[in-house]
Specification:
Blueprint (H helix, E strand, L loop, with lengths): L7 H27 L8 H17 L13 H29 L7 H30 L4 H30 L5 H27 L3
Helix pairs in contact: 1-2, 1-3, 1-4, 3-6, 4-5, 4-6, 5-6
Length: 207
């Protein structure tokens, strides 16, 4: 029966495929946020949006290898990574739906600058996590440097989130309209994704 279990290389390869797709989704979200929210989406963005939702749906099948996780410490750590990866894609889905809700609204420019700063860092974290999946199987000596970068970015996103919340409070006098409310939710989701990525990265460094 043991020969039916996935080995370490196979597990890392499957993680690389999942994270590669999630990195593409992060890129779409970053590019979409960087558009002025008051701008009508052109046909190209409509196609990209459709393609990104399709990628999210297709991700579910990529977890089928989990049936073959070994019943040992490697399997436990792999299961933990799977849980965080599922959290990442579910949170990206919420972000995309919220972006749909505000596509005809516009943010204060100072808010947009802060929001795009966070979305770019989340995309960078996803790119770094994809690199880590490869390093874990091919070049373990460099994995700690990538982990350090991810932890640094996660800390920066926490700080950026605090700044945004202060800016919103000052600009609105404590009253938050629909657009500001949605912005807070999007920022909170992006911060959660950064937390999940950091957790995944720390486990990759142990596998």
């Amino acid at each position: 029966m043991s020969e039916d279990f996935a080995d370490r290389s196979t597990i890392l390869m499957q993680f690389g495929k999942i994270i590669g797709t999630q990195e593409q989704i992060a890129e779409y979200v970053d590019n979409r946020i960087c558009l002025k929210c008051g701008t009508t989406l052109d046909d190209e963005w409509v196609i990209k949006r459709h393609d990104t939702f399709k990628r999210l749906r297709n991700l579910i099948d990529k977890y089928s290898f989990s049936k073959k996780l070994p019943r040992n410490d490697l399997g436990i750590k792999a299961q933990s990574i799977i849980s965080y990866l599922l959290n990442i894609q579910h949170t990206f889905l919420r972000v995309m739906i919220r972006l749909d809700m505000i596509q005809h609204e516009s943010f204060n420019e100072i808010f947009m600058d802060s929001l795009t700063t966070i979305s770019k860092k989340v995309h960078q974290m996803m790119t770094s996590l994809k690199i880590m999946a490869t390093q874990a199987s091919e070049n373990f000596e460099e994995i700690l440097d990538t982990l350090e970068l991810i932890i640094k970015l996660e800390r920066q996103i926490d700080e950026d989130n605090i700044i945004i919340c202060r800016q919103i409070s000052v600009a609105t006098g404590g009253d938050s309209d629909f657009t500001c409310y949605m912005m807070r939710k999007i920022v909170a989701d992006l911060e959660h994704i950064s937390d999940y990525v950091k957790e995944c990265a720390e486990i990759f460094a142990e596998i």
